[in-house]
Write a structure and sequence with these properties.
60s Ribosomal Protein L30, Chain: A; 9-stranded mixed β-sheet; 9 strands; about 60% strand; binds zinc ion
Length: about 140
């Protein structure tokens, strides 16, 4: 598995208060016809929703922190799954004491404000297919 791309345009945009991180990033990609990209972001949320992948059970455990947090760093990528753009993103959140938490971004984060950089990758997009060994949709 190896993909090579030419750098495409880099988009900077902001997700407004109340937006969902996963939904907002994916909506931007879909609206702009983006099938391959690398994403980074920072800002703050009113609520964080993320997941931890249990490598023994091969399933996600959902975690929700219903409090105000900094988004210290978020990163991720856009590739294709079942013919549609798919977001894979992880983030680290910080609380009012500077403690950090994080994981695989899930639907349900509520943005306070978020600044996003999305670097489009020009070329055949990576395609995710189910991988029985991990239970995940991985680049094939
Ligand atoms: Zn992940």
């Amino acid at each position: 598995m190896h993909y090579t791309f030419t750098p495409g345009p880099t988009h900077l945009f902001r997700l407004a208060a109340g937006a969902d991180i996963a939904g907002g990033l994916l909506d931007f990609a879909t609206a702009n016809g983006i099938e391959a990209a690398w994403v980074s972001y920072l800002g703050a949320v009113r609520r964080a929703a993320f997941r931890y992948y249990d490598q023994e059970a091969l399933e996600y455990r959902d975690l929700v922190m219903d409090q105000h947090l900094e988004v210290l760093i978020g990163t991720g990528n856009i590739s294709m799954l079942d013919g549609a753009p798919f977001l894979h993103s992880h983030a680290v959140f910080g609380d009012d004491r500077g403690a950090a938490f994080g994981g695989h971004i899930a639907p349900g984060c509520e943005v306070f404000s978020l600044e996003v950089r999305m670097e489009v990758l020009e070329g055949d997009p990576p395609v995710r297919r189910f991988d029985a060994a991990t239970g995940l949709g991985l680049w094939s």
